[in-house]
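Re-running the complex after MR caught last week's input typo. The corrected sequence lines follow. Everything else is unchanged.
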Amino acid sequence: MFYREVGQYNDNYAAASRMVPVLQDRWIIIAVAAFMVFAVPFMVNDYWALAILNPVLILSLATLGLNILTGYTGQLSLGSAGFMMIGAFGTYNFLLRVDWMNIFPAMFLSGIIAGLVGVFFGLPSARIKGFYLLVSTLAAYYFIWWFFNTFEYFTNYTSSGVVTIPRSHYEIFGFNLASASGKYLITIITVIIMTLIAKNMVRSSIGRNWVAVRDQDIAANVIGIQVVRTKLIAFFVSSFMLAVSGALYSYTYLGNVGNEIYNLRRSFLVLFMVIIGGLGSIMGSFMGAAFVYLFPIVVSRLGDTFFGGGALDSAFIENNSKIVMGAIIIYLLIKEPAGFAAIWQSIKNKLRSWPFTT
Amino acid sequence: MSFFLEVLVGGLLSGVMYSLVAIGFVLVYKSSGVFNFAQGAMLLFAALTFVSMTERGVNFWLAFIITMGTMIVMGIIIERFVMRPLANQSLLSLFMATVGLSLFLEGLAQGTWDSAVHGLDLGIPTTPIFLSDYLGPNFDILVSFFDAFAAVVAGVLILALALFFQKTKTGLSLRAVSDDHMAAQAVGIPLSTIWAIVWAVVGVISLIVGLLWSDRLGVSFTLQDIVLKGLPVILIGGLTSIPGAILGGLIIGASEKLGEIYLAPILGGQGIENWFGYTVALLFLIYKPAGIFGVKGIQRA
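Corrected-run output:
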């Protein structure tokens, strides 16, 4: 009834190739984004900003990064945690060692470094395909992990290998953003910018090349797409986004930089988020990340509400979350291989004709 | 020189342990094209079930048989409820299903028993043996008895599998299925039965391998990370070949140990084992993209 695009005509090409074609969607997205940027920072308390919103947004960004490589370009990767690690350590070291640096250029520069490392480890994708590529991405992960573990220069010679981030690192043009709202603001602005970049890449010729390579690389080559170059661009963009999300993960969520944070489980977590959200969907990246991250929290909250505080111990919740997550992944792959994004799409289709049945 | 040989032999023997993990992988991939990432979780599940039972006072062999039964039933359930509905899906979906399965099994194993670290002692002595006692004074090499034992187990396992594949009717059907699903179905081989058998066999192998690895590492959820050790091994070998898995294991094992001893000091740090194996695998794959014994399929657009 309300969600209908009848009567919305485009009379020029610019209008027809808008990022969000339906008027209602456009208004909703603008309203939500404005609310998140201008209203939420004044409303959130520490718990909401640091334990809910920031991690969900940051993991969404990481999921988006992996989705570009695995979902759009079809290159399987387990190296995500490694690239996140480059982002975190890179940002820390830029801020520590360069005077005029603030967090945004530091994240950008470490993103570029991670991108180049990603391209280097992506080079074998010219010859190696499918599962065999896992070797390359895992080599990348283990190498990066070993590198930051071995050379203590990068943790500023801290004996424990974990450095707490000093308040001065959140200084931007005289403002200190180390408060919960400030950290949230850094996160939301970065995530919105990165999402816009990703969305526009995906719907441009680069994105179409990615999808062509994913679906049938030989056919893509035949119609004149440079397959290797396309793959390497995907490696670069994906690693860049993962690095930025890794930097945020340390800076605006955990507040410290350390080796153990970026273990291989983090790579798997991001992969689960991609699968559950939907391969090759930007909206799905956000839904997948939010679901996987929030599910255990919601379960433990519900447990507290219904059975009294602390009724469900953390091991119980963790194990059962794993069981449920695993079952959901298998179920989705059988019933809805495109993940939550496809469910979202079918809800939108139902809304179009509501209250009539199609 | 004898130090070099000692490192080499030690590496080769630990490579056998990797090969053991890889065999389960190869079996599933060969017969159904599924890259079974849940292998590690199956090891964990088997080892944890076994250990929890023996800790509760169940006799060793009884626990072994019960766990074996559990693993067989689990294999059949996996085939029925995960693999069969996903038949004819893309290889990527199947892989991801096994990733989900591995999460599921990890939660199930730790939820049923517990998440604590258990010790497991199979009663195999870990005393080193001197090869010079057996082979003459030229072979002045120390070898871990446990590694040698694992190598013997691997040998027996491979021999049993080879006999099973070559001499039984089921083995023949398995080979037919791995060559061509469609053709096998056309001559009347029941695909789902064959796959159930494969998953059950993999369950049993997981138990044996899981016990050997647990004796070395203890039973905890890090046990399933062994799957990551098996990965470069099967990829070097080419995913479909059991001899490839053995050779891959030997290559990775030896190069990891030699790299750790001779290369790590040059690079300025210990612990290069973890990535060195992958790098060696990567170099092999760049030279031969389908692995050493892998079949390079013809690609059509």
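None of the earlier attempt is carried over here. Chain B touches chain A through 50 residues (CB under 8 Å). Chain B has a mean pLDDT of 83.
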